Amino acid sequence: MTMFIPDAFRQRYGPLVDDEDAFLACLDVLLPKSFRVNTLKSNPDDVKKRFSGYGIQIKQMEWYEDAFVSENPDIGATLEHFTGAIYMQELVSMLPPLLLREELKDARFVLDACAAPGSKTTQLAAMMGNRGVIVANDSSYSRTRALKFNLEKTGAINAIITNQDLRNFPHMQFDAILLDAPCSAEGTIRKNDKLFYEWSEKSIRSQSRLQKQLITKAFELLAPGGAMVYSTCTFAPEENEAVVDWLLQNHPEAVVEPIGEMEGLKLSPAVEEWQGTAFDAWVRKTRRIWPHHSNTGGFYLAKVRK
Length: 306
Prior knowledge:
Layout: H1 7-13, H2 20-26, E1 33-37, H3 44-54, E2 59-61, E3 64-70, H4 79-83, E4 86-88, H5 95-99, H6 101-104, E5 109-112, H7 119-127, E6 133-137, H8 141-154, E7 159-162, E8 174-180, H9 201-221, E9 222-232, H10 241-250, E10 255-257, E11 268-269, E12 273-274, E13 277-278, E14 287-289, H11 291-294, E15 299-305
Parallel strand pairs: 5-6, 5-8, 6-7, 8-9
Antiparallel strand pairs: 1-3, 1-4, 2-3, 9-15, 10-15, 11-14, 12-13, 14-15
Helix pairs in contact: 9-10
């Protein structure tokens, strides 16, 4: 069945991709199941042995030893899933914590600014070995219940939950901040085929205004010398490069750091200009993930140092 794709969507993003037909065709194909081994409770070798015993084929990712994909839907019915030894998570969702790998080794205070339902928070806790303190914040009270459940299930004991609008968050200083901002979620279309029926450019503009406020506040909460990762699961330049550009224009002390290559995962260049507006040259150091390149969802990544 051919997915409904608005003409405005095609016109916006067709010129940005290297292969428009492959990009649009990919959006109509379901994502493979993917999961992360929770190293607080298990390890990749043990999980591979157990899944081999179940007769479930899994493939380990080159760019992250804890990440796996499978075509078998039974993964979600395994004991490992129920006990929190693995965590069902999109591959691209695993990327933001990885960009903070070095910082997390010595970080005492880490902020996951929009944390629910906890995919990245639990990953941060595992990478930190339950050391330090993670403040897992979300503005939605109902979503914090899922966050609490996932923290308990995975054995993440170094996280505390706060229920605040980030824009009003009390002034603190964090060594590392992860801001996976609320967005128009265009990059998740492969698991939500109803998204296009609600999609609009008006929504993109509204999200962009909020994101600029969030990234400004998050940067203010970052300790000098600290690092922040800004990410979204959308294609819109207004929500990606334009937001980082906004931060750079308003905080000259912000420095965008390059994002290194990842074996087996194609990272694409940032958009340098959009609708007649050229972005700050530093924005070129940010990266995009297009779905048709590595059979993933769509994503955007920026790492900023204070």
